[in-house]
Amino acid sequence: MKKLMRIVLMTLAMITASGLVSSEAQACPGCKNANETDSLRPRAYMYSILFMLGMPATVFTGFGIAFYRMSRRSMQEQLAQMNSEVAEQTSAE
């Protein structure tokens, strides 16, 4: 489990580092010209696209965290049950 957690953390660190190091993305000429004008509509459209791209990642991350917590809780309950069974066996002997 520790190995999986280490892999996940390293992957997140690499994604974060690549996001900080990367330069500004090049837009198509129409988008570039629209963003250089004073109109706020193209900029709002651009932000709405970024928001829509970020939502699936947010939702899947939430589900992943929820499933991780559920499996972790289940493992702890199983360990507690096994420990109580072992304690009962040793006290019976």
Summarize the structure.
With 93 residues, the chain is mostly helical. The chain has 3 helices and no strands.
Explained architecture:
The protein has helices spanning 2-21, 29-36, 41-92. The chain has three helices and no strands. It is mainly α and 93 residues long. It has one domain.
Mean pLDDT: 82
Helix content: over 70%
Question: Cα distance, first to last residue?
Answer: 34 Å
Count of beta strands: 0
- Sheet-strand content, in percent, reads under 5%
Can you tell me the number of structural domains?
1
What is the H-and-E element order?
HHH
Shape: rod-shaped
What class would the helix/strand composition place it in? Answer: mainly alpha
Radius of gyration, CA atoms, in whole angstroms: 24 Å
| Helix count from the secondary structure assignment | 3
Write the layout of secondary structure elements.
Elements: H1 2-21, H2 29-36, H3 41-92
Keywords:
single chain; 93 residues; mainly alpha; rod-shaped; 3 helices
